[in-house]
Amino acid sequence: MKQQQKDAYDKLKLKSQLCFPLYACSKEVIRHYKPLLDELDLTYTQYITMMVLWEKKSLCVNALGEELYLDSGTLTPLLKKLEKKGYLTRCRCDNDERSVKICITEEGEKLKEKAASIPEKMESCVKLSEKESAFLYRILYRMLEQLNPS
Amino acid sequence: MKQQQKDAYDKLKLKSQLCFPLYACSKEVIRHYKPLLDELDLTYTQYITMMVLWEKKSLCVNALGEELYLDSGTLTPLLKKLEKKGYLTRCRCDNDERSVKICITEEGEKLKEKAASIPEKMESCVKLSEKESAFLYRILYRMLEQLNPS
DNA sequence: TACAATTAGATTGTATGCAATTTGATTGTA
DNA sequence: TACAATCAAATTGCATACAATCTAATTGTA
Fold it and tell me: How many Å apart are B62 CA and C8 C1'?
């Protein structure tokens, strides 16, 4: 076998890939959120959706999708569930009937208090130094920008 | 509002969290694999499953799940699909009828040749320096180890 | 050796994710 | 102003993920 082909095969190993630890790590982190989010009766995707709403109060589905890297196929049913729980409202925009505006409710605002302790609790699961966190953060956002230039 | 509560709320912002870019990045990377994997008629999860088999040739569902951080609920239907495609066989172990042994087929081995160019193509999507890749790799595996000590 | 406890996969049910398509509203332009 | 092109959500279909439960095999031990 040629050296070149051997190199190509080496790169096909799970342990040679960056994509795999990224994928596995993401899932493991989300798994660790679960018991904390269960107390709020939220899934992880519902949680990050609420995070955007806690900050922005109100925005269109489209904009929400860009923030979260999710499309309407995922968001529509998810937003309906959060609406049913009473955390947000969905209504067509007055000025553009194509768009749907999502607004946080008082119930939704109240949930923020219960969620406030979660980030701290999660941090304690993963022991990274200040420097490592900052590096990881920067590099992931740079990758995101490269993969999905917005 | 107390400073402490303000800090807690700041940490609730999407941009303050490490979990979010991890989650988004993982999805974006997988999305970038799609056109390459479409040519092989594999999904991403099927691809990483084949990566393990290209390396190990044969192992039990259990061991496969530990490698991939997936459980039988995900693996069983996925392995049935790959079996139907002819890339692997599933059969109960002789010495322990509870276990199912997965073996790669010749068809499965042949697929490796077609997949060999994928890692290189993916690398070109994300421009990280040698140093950055190595750092990211180390930190992700360390996190994995912390989150799921095996 | 009985038999409770454990283990490996399979199954069930719920919630994403996302590509592709559809529906209805808006925009650009001949 | 007609009307094609575009756009925003919603819908459909398929493939994960994973917790919880179930089934069958194996193991530990009284």
Answer: 7
